[in-house]
Amino acid sequence: MSDVPSSSTQVVDYRRRQRLARIAQRLIIFGGSILLAVYVIAPVTWLVSSSVQTEAEIVSVPPHWIPEEPTLRNFKAIFSATEEETVTYETRSGQDPAAGGFIPSTASSLLPAMANSLTVATLVVILNLLVAVPAAYSLAKIRTWGRNATVYFILITRVIPDIALVVPFFLVIRKLGMLDTIGSLVLTYLAVTVPFSVFILLQYFEGLPDELDKAARVDGCSRFQALIRVFLPLSLPSLVAVVLFTFLTSWNEFLLALMFTQTEASQTLPILLAAFTSDFTISFSFINAAGVLAIIPPVIVAIIFERYIVSGLTAGAVKG
Amino acid sequence: MAADKDNGDQEMSGLLKSNFGRRDFLRTSAAAGAVALAAPARIGFAQGGPTINMQTWSAAVDTVQSHVNAFTEATGIPVNYGNAPWAQYRESMVTKFVGGAPLDMMWVSDAWLPEWAEAGWISPVDEFDFLMAYNAEAEDFCTNSMTYNGRQYGLTYYTDFMAFLYDESKIKEAGFDAPPATWEEVVEQSLVMKEKGISDYPMMLAMAQESWLIEFMSALVFSHGGRFVDDDGMAVMQEKDKGAVEALQWVVDAVNTHGIVSPACVETGELSGLKAFASGNHAFAMVAKYRLRMLNDPEQSQIAGNVKQAMMPKGPNGDHNTVGWMRFHGMASQAAQDKARAESTAKLIEWFGGKANGAYTFQKFLFLDIGAGFGVKPLFDDPEIRAAYDAYGNVDMIQAQQALAMKKDVVTPWFGEWNETNGSAWQSAILGNTDAATAVMKSAEFWDELKQDY
């Protein structure tokens, strides 16, 4: 008898270790995935859960992930907004914010603010595409003097932080008589988003072979027709990236909207949500209910373009 | 998956490959541009004309709007009312001032007065005698807080003060009949509570670096009979008989010698401290008076019904003084430059900060609607207000304490810069890294340096 294990035993041990290593690896990946999923999903879950909780339940320790006394009070307050009428001493909401069931008096402005946000975001997306697509195509495929300088100039405009642009923008908007209008937001958001949209599309168009352009021209296409019939169909992922970028930027933008709007006629959702935090108190449950409504449009946009999102977001990231 | 993607590509490609010519493109672009620029038809600002532009932060919007509507109905003067979130209000107003937005009347915090007055954005209102007449019925600290370089800039919108609150059940459990009247008695009662296991840290102090810190420090200094600076704006905090050193020494001893205040107080913000007090962890707390309503609400507090207010304890050389703060209705300089516009704006200021139809309607509604404190003394006699206060507090106690409130003496153009250094100096002493006298001396030296620079 020898103490040295036979070669067949060694092979079995090796296979067992390999199998255990594979299982361990899968467990680590699985555990990591679970952690990542919880990290991503937990805040949204809490947002939804707390939107149907009372103020007292929200601050309970430990937190109630599943509401014990669910209530739709906040959503009712938002959707029960009636036709706008002159507010009088008798019809004012007059709620004490120190009381548990406080609902801000501006609750009824939430849906108009959502409509404003949607209008602004949609217009900015459409105008972005109309401006950025021809600009990027011409810069990518038409070799002209000053082309590189133009590209760098467009990029440089994005180096300037938004905060530095606020006062100049404000002066222009005031001179145009557009203060407190959604037009002021469309105009300024275009100035912010178009350079980046051009940059995304430019990188993508440059990655497409020049021969396609030449072949289209040989077949009788004008420049414009080559863009519409040849390049755009091939550029869907980058177009989706532009749509997502401009929509989400416009939907979430706060600083410029804060400066240019001041009434229900033009205030967008981020401004109204911020206004729910007063100098006296904050209604967590109401803000969370408003937050639930605020994430619906971006989620819908993400679902519509889901299949293009990953390729779209990496469009232009690697230049071939 | 790949098939799905291909189908999707084909669908979208099909859309894009439809017959869409250059002229169509130009037509669509023009139409989209027209829509974008036509949308601004709803212009909110009335640029020019008799309309008064009023800007506030987003508090009690309905109450304000109802009062605006009543003003227009009573005077025939239209008002364009806009509001912005409280947290970003100052920044948005600065942009509007710099950008020349049409503004006539706006809400102003006492903390911004030096900055806005020095910049020439707001104008004094003391030339309107009918506005100055209201000072006779206003709390002195409110009038003082609206005054800068001898000129008064508005009428009160709301006010409050730092209150000393206690949990009555814990006081009784410790064997005391009455709350402490001096800071020495706070130590004495707290030590008994610690010994009996009623509370580990009976006194709640929130000394974290945040906007509330100067209010807590001021209340401590004023109740020790002290000042940070004298009437000429020169630092006196470093003088041992001026209260600031004594106040800081009391906090240092409370944390390090007696153990009645948690060392974590330097990381405790006002809201966290409030929640801790509401959960029953402490017997005494220094918080804003308006928190009393929440602390006695069973839905939000575990010690509801037991929270009472006492006069701010006094130091050996002090009195029951505390700090008060306020916001006011101010007039924009651009309004003051036009006589007719200024008169209309002054009427609107009176309608909100003074009497409307013979009564302090707005300040009363603001208290009843959102619990905001008022700065005019006659409202303490209003039966509706007394009933509302008595539901959760003692209106006479509130009135007595408010009468002893003092304005912060450090509100200057360099306040923000100094405040940070001062807060750090106090925290450093509390943590035992330096002694109280040295910490306050450092703060005083920095004050003098800044005063000279400005």
UniProtKB/TrEMBL annotation, chain A:
SUPFAM superfamilies per the UniProt record, alphabetical: MetI-like
Entry's localization field: Cell membrane
Topology of this chain in the membrane: Multi-pass membrane protein
Record key words, sorted: Cell membrane, Membrane, Sugar transport, Transmembrane, Transmembrane helix, Transport
Residues annotated as domain ABC transmembrane type-1: 114-305
TM stretches of this protein: 23-42, 118-139, 151-173, 185-205, 226-248, 282-305
Family: Belongs to the binding-protein-dependent transport system permease family. MalFG subfamily.
PANTHER family found in the cross-reference section: MALTOSE TRANSPORT SYSTEM PERMEASE-RELATED (PTHR32243), MALTOSE_MALTODEXTRIN TRANSPORT SYSTEM PERMEASE PROTEIN MALG (PTHR32243:SF50)
Protein name per its UniProtKB record: Maltose/maltodextrin transport system permease protein MalG
From TrEMBL, chain B:
GO CC term (a single one): periplasmic space
SUPFAM superfamilies the UniProt entry points to: Periplasmic binding protein-like II (SSF53850)
Subcellular localization(s) per the UniProt record: Periplasm
Pfam families named in the record: SBP_bac_1
Coiled-coil intervals: none
InterPro entries: Bact_solute-bd_prot1, SBP, TAT_signal
Family under the similarity heading: Belongs to the bacterial solute-binding protein 1 family.
Protein name as it appears in the record: Carbohydrate ABC transporter substrate-binding protein, CUT1 family
